[in-house]
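The methods section describes the discrete structure representation at length, but only in general terms. What matters is that the chain and its backbone geometry are given together, residue for residue. Nothing conveys this as quickly as seeing an actual entry. For illustration, here is how one protein appears when written out as sequence plus structure tokens:
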Amino acid sequence: MKSSLNEILSFNESFVESKQYESYITSKFPDKKSVILTCMDTRLVELLPKAMNMRNGDVKIVKNAGAQVSHPFGSIMRSILVAVYELKADEVFVIGHHDCGMSAVDPDVMIGHMSERGINDDIINTVKYSGFDLVEWLRGFGDVSQSVLKSVDLIRNHPLMPKMTPVHGLVIDPNTGKLELLADGNSYLKDNSTEATV
């Protein structure tokens, strides 16, 4: 297997020596006071910020497979809360995308790939039968819109999330960058203003 490490380190040395970093200097606080949860898909690395008119320093971006909050007290939700409470973000965007790899993940096939890559079947069986639902943990989703809305709902109703924080849900086309609005957090807060002030 070819590693990119030496190529990356060589480029990095030149990058630092020629001070190319200077155009990226900013603070740790997002200028546009927002945090985005999105997918780790390679097509979105540059496309998503460009499609949203975001530059380095504008937003906090949290990425994982499928742009999902799969556990209310997992690392993704913790990152969102850190962005809100410690890094001054006051708006949350959950942005999934069409043609997402997580929509087609078959846990049994992935477990087969683990075996092919040298993970011992005894280890896989121990994890499976230790009370942890490995298959469910690896399972993808069928509909990206429903997945985004589920994450929006979980974030919006999280007991530690400030109730007046708008949480938006969108889906992006990974080819064109077109955004489709699924959930407008501002409208939600306006429609539920009596509950939101509690």
Q: What stands out?
A: The mean pLDDT is 94.
